[in-house]
Amino acid sequence: MNKTLFAIRMVFITLCTSAGWLVCYTVREWDDYRSLAALIGALIGALVLLVDVLLKGFSLRGLSAITFGLSIGVLIAYLIGISPLLEYGDPQIIFIVRLSLFIIVTYLCTVIALRGRDDFNLVIPYVRFVPHEVDVPLVVVDTSVLIDGRISKVCAAGFLSAALVIPRFVLRELNAVANSSDPQKQARGRRGLEVLNELRRIKNLDLRTPESEVSNREDLDAKLVFLAQSMKAKLMTTDYNLSKIAEFHGVSWLDLNSLARSLRPELMLGESLTVELTKPGKEPGQAVGYMTDGSMIVVEGGRDYLGQQVCAEVVSVLPTAGGKMVFARYTSAAS
After folding, report:
1. In this structure, is the dihedral angle defined by the CA atoms of residues 249, 251, 237 and 185, taken in order, positive or negative?
2. Cβ-count burial 34-57 (b if 16+ within 10 Å, e if not)
């Protein structure tokens, strides 16, 4: 339990107990029942806390829907109650009818409002009854992911359903890299800015840029981890050191390199593939080409077809640290 919430609850129980004790000072006949009154006050406080626990997870949106339903129900019951239908008759029967109308109509309106709180777009100050208020998964993005560039293609393909959170200090860091005097850093920073613009152009992508300050650049990694923790979000990075810091603090992290490796096609022996041969191999008659995931393909008997696309048959697959090296045999020119 949250320590602050626990302290508030204990103070509330103490106040209820004290209130029960102090009530006896206002009625002289109750002086002999102070202990009982204090116990009753504590039990009332415990009952309120029980209701509080049972309401855990009940959202502000649900409370607003109940308030709206109750208001409409009371209004309908009141209008029926003052209508000519109940103007004449036995006062007791009229009272019972009005009471029944109040209970039944308010209940039905409340239930309808709760069931349909996502289906209407009524605006109440500070509260909107719209589906996008439902909590969505969040992913905090760091500078390395933007510079990497693959995130825009993943989002454009629709495989990432979470909202992307790009803090303002990440944008400032990216802008500083783009304005660097080092040509290589400058090129990487500008590519990151281009990727950011591509993300903004993707329709239906929930892109958020919250304001958050850091005192030193050295605190960027710690700030990213803290932000992901506080927002209960995942952290997307290609920085190995940052991923280890996130793992140490219990923050889930996403790695685009792991995603790319998991998407590499599995080649079977004897399978035919089409590849463009780009350079000669080490052995006579060999030529080398690359698959879309970067895996190297060595084609026996393909040196005469450099610069062309050929069909080849897989004869062996050798796993390496940088991917897979595939050995194939030339079969025919690609049509």
Report:
1. negative
2. eeebbebbbeebeeeeeeeeeeee
pLDDT at position 242 over 70: yes
* Cα(265)–Cα(298) distance, integer angstroms: 17
Give the list of residues 6+ apart from residue 245 with CB closer than 8 angstroms, or none: 221, 222, 225
The label of the residue with tokens 């320590």 reads 3
Helix, strand, or coil here: 276? strand
Rounded to whole angstroms, how far apart are CA atoms 328 and 311?
9
Dihedral pair phi/psi, residue 84, rounded to 5°? -60, -15
- Cα–Cα separations (whole angstroms), residue 323 to 239, 262, 289: 19, 11, 14
State in words which class domain 138-261 has: alpha beta
Task: With beta carbons less than 8 A apart as the criterion, state whether 145 and 151 touch.
Answer: yes
Residues 168-182: pLDDT tens digits? 888 888 888 889 888
8 Å CB contact between 236 and 160: no
Cβ count within 10 A of residue 179: 11
Banded model confidence at residue 308, pLDDT cuts 50, 70, 90: confident
Look at residue 86 in the predicted model and tell me its pLDDT.
78
* Matching residue, tokens 């450099």: 306
The ranges of the chain annotated as CATH 3.40.50.1010 are 138-261
Q: How far is Cα 39 from Cα 47, in angstroms, rounded to an integer?
A: 12
Q: In sequence order, which ranges of 271-321 are alpha helices (DSSP H)?
A: none
**What CATH code would you report for 272-333?**
2.40.50
CA dist 224 to 190, 237, 251, 257, Å? 22, 10, 10, 19
Location of each CATH 2.40.50 domain in the chain: 272-333
What is d(CA 314, CA 243) in angstroms, rounded to the nearest whole number? 36
